[in-house]
Amino acid sequence: MNELGRYSRQILFSGIGKEGQLKLLNSKVAIVGVGALGTVCANHMVRSGVGYIRLIDRDVVDLSNLQRQSLFNEEDVTLNLPKAVAAKKRLNSINSSVKVEAVITDLNLDNAEELLSGVDVIVDGTDNFMTRYLINDVAVKYQIPWVHGAAVSSRGMFAVIKPGITPCYRCLFPQVPDGRGETCDTIGVLSTITDIIGSFQAMEAIKLLLGAVTNTNLEQIDIWETSFFSMDTTEGKNPQCPACVKRQFEFLDRLSAVQETYSSLCGRDTVQIYFREKRERNLHKLSERLKQNGKVSGNEFLLRFSPNDETTIVVFKDGRVLVHGTDDIVKAKSLFTKYIGN
Length: 342
What we know:
Number of domains: 2
Strand content: 15-25%
Low-confidence stretches: none
CATH topology of the largest domain: Rossmann fold
Shape: globular
Strand order of the largest sheet: 3-2-1-4-5-6-7-8
CATH architecture of the largest domain: 3-Layer(aba) Sandwich
Structural class: alpha/beta
Largest sheet: 8 strands, mixed
Number of helices: 12
Order of helices and strands: HHEHEHHEHEHEEHHHEEEEHEEEEH
Distance between the termini: 45 Å
């Protein structure tokens, strides 16, 4: 098979050409999170001929994923396949010349540097703030550009972060939001917005690999309202930023106050999630958000939420969380992110 012939229409585009295509074939990209955004990005990366793609995801394919996660099908659900494995299988059938590595793991401070430091570009396909701050710390530490993306309901955003050139993610979002954000599992999401944001992310990642000019805005889109908003970030660098200015990588530091601690409680089939940084949750607001997803009860001190008969999540006013029904820390972390909104 003529390797370059596969990309003939892309090579005809003046912004890429043969030289650019050869750059892509020799590039390495890591995609963190192989969900709605990650599958769109991975699909474009493989079809565009990015030579090596590392897919990092901790979850398995669920029936509810098929509405928007474009690389999966019903067979993947039946086989209970990890998302990274199912995506690799599909991507290999699209372009066997691209090296796709499936990493079934939770990206955390123990493995983030190893998994991300050896690539040319990182793509954010995650669904939570903490992982984005972790990506940012690794990216800034090793001077790796990355593309942030997020989508929920009918809204989405993306931004290109080039350490040493643009503001970093911590400049744009100095603190982890107290509410930890809405999630697709609590307020829903449209497949059209994840396709749009994922495609923009893929395009910006390709530009980065080619050394082309990238977008300098934090772009926000609402596909339902057909509204677009661009925020110029060129002057957004924080002169006191802990990450890109002071080079204090708190999300890579186990002893940092920003860290979350996960511990399995012996004999109780429960995982406790504890936040070193003091915070207070608005239990009433959280209760209203969770009512449509399961049974909610509680008092002024705590909230109990049961999305099903096997799981109960107890949220205390001081932010501490107990996930009853599992002693698997990765599963508990996934449930917490899914419903509470990490």
